[in-house]
Design a protein that fits this description.
Radius of gyration: 17 Å
Strand content: under 5%
Low-confidence stretches: 1-15
Mean pLDDT: 86
Shape: elongated
Oligomer: single chain
Length: 138
């Protein structure tokens, strides 16, 4: 059983390497999530799509780094989280959420607004949750 002492310290057999991802990616993810443009209010529109793309770019790089690790099996929660964000981002982009107006006038547009808003929220929340999944499972 490993005992950790905050970010940067570990008593496991890897001599602190188990916190390597957390040290490298926690702040990057946080900065991307917190860099929400002023024009992004409801999860739709070009400002929100730009924000979702920036968050996705960070999580995609994280995913590639974890996939390349010899101990990637210990980071299954990270891989699951980044995979979910990739799928949500692909759907957000496919739905053309940048073109959905914030004010809807018919049922179809309202449904698309709700779908896009939910996808955006899932991307941002998923990225925030990733910050808690950067340590390996024991």
């Amino acid at each position: 059983m490993a005992v950790t002492a905050g970010r940067g310290g570990s008593t496991d057999e890897q001599g602190g390497e188990s916190l390597e991802l957390e040290a490298k990616w926690h702040d990057r993810i946080s900065e991307a999530v917190n860099a929400k443009p002023d024009g992004c209010r409801a999860g739709v529109g070009s400002a929100c799509e730009t924000h979702a793309a920036a968050v996705h770019a960070i999580t995609e790089r994280l995913h590639k780094e974890v996939e390349a690790r010899p101990d990637k099996d210990r980071y299954q929660a990270t891989l699951d989280g980044t995979t979910a964000i990739n799928e949500q981002y692909d759907q957000h982009f496919t739905e053309l959420c940048a073109t959905v107006p914030e004010t809807t006038v018919d049922a179809a547009t309202t449904q698309k607004f709700n779908t896009c808003s939910g996808l955006y929220t899932s991307i941002i929340t998923g990225a925030s949750d990733l910050q808690d999944n950067l340590r390996p499972s024991e």
